[in-house]
Amino acid sequence: MFAALHGPAPGRFCSRVLPRAPGAGGSAGTSAGTSMGTSTGTSTLSLCPPPVTSDQIEHLHRRFKQLSRDQLTIRKENFDSIPDLEFNPIRSKIVHAFFDKRNLRQESDGLADEIDFEDFLTIMSYFRPIETSMDEEQLERFRRDKLKFLFHMYDSDRDGKITLHEYRNVVEELLSGNPHLEKEAARSIADGAMMEAASICVGQMGPDQVYEGITFEDFLKMWQGIDIETKMHVRFLNMEPIGHCY
Q1: Omega before residue 10 within 30° of 0, cis
Q2: Lowest mean pLDDT: which of 3-12, 136-145, 188-197?
Q3: Preceding amide of 50 cis, omega within 30
Q4: Among 89, 85, 114, which Cα is nearest to 101's?
Q5: Handedness of CA 240, 243, 244, 246 (dihedral sign)
Q6: Rg of the chain in Å (alpha carbons)
Q7: Where is the segment annotated Disordered (predicted)?
Q8: Is 235:11 a contact under the CB 8 Å cutoff?
Q9: Residues in Cβ contact with 94 at an 8 Å cutoff, skipping those fewer than 6 apart
Q10: Treating both helix axes as pointing N-terminal to C-terminal, what angle do 136-154 and 91-99 enclose, rounded to 10 degrees?
Q11: What's 194's DSSP letter?
């Protein structure tokens, strides 16, 4: 789902991004394997302990300095220096995710103009791999945090619901690079997933209620049984300098 924030030696990131449409075969989602960079993320502010090591913090800080060109903050235009991101079909959504105040756990809404290193750690914490020391409660919170981040990417108008239009938009963008898939097929996948979501929650709605979109609670139900904990993460790799970032 995410393009690489990397130098010449990328890591790999893979996320299940599409719930299976009713009647579709295969896995419960569509895997989008994209390289995310040479750093993994976590933060001492993360909801899921344990905190990162000093080496990991240092590694992420070097990456932050590369992107910011040694400034104290990163702005949206700094992401223009990432070549692989240029061709990602959901580039704008990826960049917005880093500046979305909902992901930064800020009380206000909207997009931040810039983020500092602490904000950067907060965003990267959503991609940390699962920890063997986590208990059941921590794992559940860990999973919920990751799905909340993913939900925010779909919910572009930040109203707490994913409408059919929003879902179609993401699906069509994600699949736009597939020359073998027609736009109508992508739309059919989105429509099927919306129908599935509606069928999940329709029993909880009153007779006069109208289904207006996927809420976060609906989203959680749609992802039951899908292993988001191990799919949505970033692995450590050695980082090489990015000459054009200086």
Answers
A1: no
A2: 3-12
A3: yes
A4: 114
A5: positive
A6: 18
A7: 22-52
A8: yes
A9: 1, 2, 3, 79, 85, 88
A10: 120
A11: H
Higher-confidence residue of 87 and 23: namely 87
Tokens of 72: 């104290």
Instruction: Read off the pLDDT of each residue in 160-187 and give the average, rounded to a whole number.
Output: 80
Question: Tens digits of per-residue pLDDT, 119-168?
Answer: 999 998 888 777 788 889 988 998 899 999 999 999 999 999 998 888 88
Share of the chain above pLDDT 90, in %: 22
User: Can you read off the two tokens belonging to residue 234?
Assistant: 């970033």
Beta bridge partners of 116: 73
pLDDT mean across residues, the chain = 71
CA-closest candidate to residue 74, choices 87, 65, 84, 61:
65
Please check whether residue 189 is in contact with residue 172, taking contact to mean a CB–CB distance below 8 angstroms: no
Nearest Cα to 152, choosing from 78, 215, 221, 196? 215
Show the tokens assigned to 61: 């800080």
Out of 1.10.238.10, 3.30.420.40, 2.170.190.11, 3.30.430.20, select the CATH number for domain 13-241: 1.10.238.10
Which pLDDT score is estimated for 204?
64
Evaluate the CA torsion angle 171, 35, 74, 82 in order and state its sign. Answer: negative
pLDDT of the residue at 216: 93
227 sits in the region (left: phi over 0; alpha: psi -120 to 50; else beta) called: beta
Question: What is the dihedral sign for C-alpha 227, 219, 20, 127?
Answer: negative
How do the domains of the chain map onto residue ranges?
Answer: 13-241
Which tokens sit at 53?
A: 């090591």
The residue written with tokens 């191990």 in the block is 230
For helices 136-154 and 164-174, the axis angle rounded to 10 degrees is: 90
